[in-house]
Write a structure and sequence with these properties.
Blueprint (H helix, E strand, L loop, with lengths): L1 H7 L7 H8 L9 H38 L4 H17 L2 H36 L2 H22 L8 H15 L3 H11 L1
Helix pairs in contact: 7-8
C-alpha cells in the first residue's frame, strides 16, 4: 500500500509535458450549461469594465497633463519637488539625525584638534626663534646686512633703517652718475 501512496504523492516537480496536460484539461465538462453561460457573461462584463477603466484612466492622464501645463509645471519642476520632498523625508528619519549629530560632533573634535596643532606649531616657532641656533643665524644675517650697508653706503652708516640705507644708496648713486652733491640733496628732499 505504501507503494501506491507514493505513486499518488510524487515529490518530483511538474515537467513541461505535465503542465501542458493540466493546461489542456477540459474542466468545462464539469460545469453545467447554466454555469457555463453565467461565467461567459461575467467574462464579457469584466473585459468591458477593464476597457472602460483604461479609457477613463487615459482621459484622466490627459487632463492631468493639461492642468500641469496651465500651471507651468514641467518634468524638471516635478523632479525638483520630488527630490526636495524625499530629502526632507530623509532628514526627518532617526538614522539621519543620529548620523548628523555624530558627524557634527566629529567635526567639532577635528576643529579642536587642528586648533591645538596650530597652537603647538606656533609655540614651536616661538621656541625655535628663541633658540641659540636661531639667535646665531640672526646675528650672522645682521652682520652680513651691516657689511653690505658699509660697502654700499660708505663707512658712515653703522646701521640705520631701511629707508636710511635706501636714501644713502640713492645719494651715492647720484654722485657717481655726475649729478654732483647738489642734485643728490634735491633727490633727498623729494623722498
Amino acid at each position: 500500500m505504501e507503494a501506491q501512496a507514493q505513486g499518488l504523492l510524487e515529490t518530483e516537480p511538474l515537467q513541461g509535458r505535465d503542465e501542458d496536460t493540466v493546461a489542456s484539461a477540459d474542466f468545462s465538462s464539469m460545469l453545467s450549461e447554466e454555469e457555463r453561460e453565467e461565467l461567459k457573461a461575467e467574462l464579457v462584463q469584466l473585459e468591458d469594465e477593464i476597457t472602460t477603466l483604461r479609457q477613463v484612466l487615459s482621459a484622466k492622464e490627459r487632463h492631468l497633463v493639461e492642468i500641469k501645463q496651465k500651471l507651468g509645471m514641467n518634468l524638471m519642476n516635478e523632479l525638483k519637488q520630488n527630490f526636495s520632498r524625499s530629502w526632507y523625508d530623509v532628514q526627518t528619519t532617526t538614522a539621519y539625525k543620529k548620523t548628523h549629530e555624530t558627524l557634527s560632533h566629529a567635526g567639532q573634535k577635528a576643529t579642536a584638534a587642528f586648533s591645538n596643532v596650530g597652537t603647538a606649531i606656533s609655540k614651536k616657532f616661538g621656541d625655535m626663534r628663541n633658540s641659540p641656533t636661531f639667535k646665531s643665524f640672526e646675528e650672522r644675517v645682521e652682520t652680513t646686512v651691516t657689511s653690505l650697508k658699509t660697502k654700499v653706503g660708505g663707512a658712515n652708516h653703522g646701521g640705520g633703517s631701511f629707508e636710511e640705507v635706501l636714501s644713502s644708496t640713492a645719494h651715492a648713486s647720484a654722485q657717481s652718475s655726475g649729478g654732483g652733491p647738489r642734485r643728490a640733496e634735491e633727490e633727498e628732499l623729494q623722498c
